[in-house]
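Figure 2 data, in text form.
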Amino acid sequence: LLVPHGLPEIVDGHMKYALVDWCYSQPQSILGLAIFAVSHATFGRARRSHAALAVGSTKYSKALVKTNLALKDASEATHDEVLLAIMLLSFYENSVMEKTSHVSSRGIQAMASRSFTHHDGAMAVLNLRRQLDQRTNYSMGLDKLVRRQLMRSLLLRSMSLPSWLQDGSQYGEHGFALELDRCMVGAAKLRHQASSLSVDFASLSISDRYDEMVRLGRLLAEAQTLDNVLVIWANDLPTENWYSTRTVQDDEIGNRILDGTVHIYHTVGHAGMWNRYRALRLTVNDTMLKTLSVLAESSDSDTESLEEAVKLRIQRLADDLCASVPYMLGLIEPHDVAGHDVTVVTKTPASPKQAVKATTAAFLCWPLTMATMVSGIPERHQRYLRNRLLDVSEIVDDGVLERIAADFSSIS
């Protein structure tokens, strides 16, 4: 539960509020039980310890009972530890899922349904908390970071944000973090609209066909505008937030570096920020690709050239996402040499867990998962991203990520 220090605030997460002291100072509290549940579950999964998993399950059950009781009391439901405990219980559900778990559908909505249920509960609590008259800085800071996670959850599920969750400035977002936040809200809206795109033009009347073409054209234009805004956001970032690209001559770690190209960032947090930006652009361009595919069914539309342009953007974004992974997973080590140049040395860890901490690899969870749901990513990139998502699932002990990576080619 320890998070790296010295990272840009834009990538802060709610886990930094989950202090291990709770386990010992208040072991039977909601939050103490939730932290114990997650700790035993991740340890048990990593070490294949049935005893640890059993303890984790017991702690989870107790935490769940206490959480449900707290939610029935309007005053207690808005406590900080209740909100944080709910988010931790979601983390627990991801951790304990096994590859052999029976899931009728391969979609992420089914795979992570138990985790998403906790997210929905956290959303209800967050809505109650924002209506309180008096708030501490601690509570408002927690709300901001929980909201960030819930937004990513809604994007994964192709759901738009409720109106009360949309304005990041009300939760303390500001500066370029607020600008990216607004893009995330827009991307969620577009992704939700694109999730139900299916038009049988042949069955429509001339009038209805025209209306449908106008609707699709508007969706396409909104997606293109949002992609342009995201590009401007990246171009306007201060130079200290940018990264450099290097070529690795001798790749001693086989297929863990794609095409010998890697990125070097100031911190893993900067890499996490850039990959969230890339995941958003991949999502927006995926919306464009789906819209163009539907438009192509109409003989009145010539979409081939625009479709190729969108596919090229998706490939370039996938290139950058793949190039960021070796740095984030500790597979390379940059060294400053004379003349302020940087040389890159590859590392050959015995296992992914030995190369990087779980709190660092966690920055890849959402971007890589979003990438599994984007059409148009070249097959080589798909294989690479799938294998790295498997590495990440092992590092962070996340069974849902493991299932998603295993079913990569089946998720759309």
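Caption note: The two ends are 32 Å apart (CA to CA).
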